[in-house]
């Protein structure tokens, strides 16, 4: 009997495995998204300091650089491995797909990243210790390494949405995978946000400066930089949504009214803040600038990352790895077979090597245990399975339904792939029956 290459199940109670990845990733992105914009800002400030002979700008760069070292590179370096660890646990076949497609691209990105990390330390600690022209060249190299890191990683994570062309599925080519139609919109979207964040962080640093004239001048400049970054983000986002696959557009239509209302409020709020920085710079103090960092990070970043993760469903990578780790289509270029039909024919219990032998055959004694295990394998990457689940709880969706109603939904909706954002799950009758029995039993506990 043909086996499929599933991995052991990872499930985080009440929250769900995917949300652990999302929470870790958001913290990492908040830290890392200050680095590339800051690298470009450093190049601009170093150029200005060198050309205009303004040593006071070097002092500002040093303060900014120390903040960057701690906030972006210490926190970012801790949460970076954290996001890949949680992603590997929650979605091992998704990460495997990325590695098999981009191993050398990823290795190249690490070369750029290593140069970037060494560069930021040298950039900060060599201020006023080496000649200014050499320091200027160092800032340029640091900026190029940062943008290079961004470009390479964006090509990889854009593939998580989709390759953007059918050629990849036949060729398995790295270039067909990397240069999808949403790679460059995604790149400029991230770059715009990073530039905006560099200005937001810059406003925190300027608010602590003692020289009034320099503080006002740099506050205005940071406001302008933030406006430019925000405008690029907005335009790129509108471009980005035109390059999404059909399943993502279907989900986007559901979220769009909420997105529009939230984004309008955020655009107005951020525009007022940046306008105040430009025209009334003396109003920007440390308390205001730190508060706005967290407003932008929490209200601006978290919904955006949540949206990107949500509209990718039912896939986690490349429109062929389902969120439940089943391969949802043939990819001849990678020798990958559609596993939905294999599971439908033989049953998930038989083709998954990690199912304990005592649960391979469903009996009255183990039916509930098997049903729970099958539900976790099939559903837990997107749903929490407890009655008090925090994110996308599954059980309330079947509240008030008996086993036959639950089973009918599975057989005539999930098995047919009728919901665009949910994986097609076609199991033998007895396995659906076990799942429905367990779900009904859990909802009955509440009575």
Q: Secondary-structure blueprint of this entry?
A:
Elements (H helix, E strand, L loop, with lengths): L16 H16 L2 H18 L2 H36 L1 H34 L6 H30 L5 H5 L2 H5 L4 H25 L4 H30 L4 H34 L6 H26 L3 E3 L3 E2 L17 H7 L1 H4 L15 H13 L23 H12 L14 H16 L3
Antiparallel strand pairs: 1-2
Please explain how this structure is put together.
The chain has 447 residues and is an all-alpha fold. The chain is 70% helix and 1% strand. It has 16 helices and 2 strands. Strands 1-2 form a two-stranded antiparallel sheet. A hairpin with a 3-residue loop joins β1 and β2. α3 crosses α8, α5 crosses α8 and α9 runs antiparallel to α10. The longest helix is centred in the first third of the chain and has 36 residues.
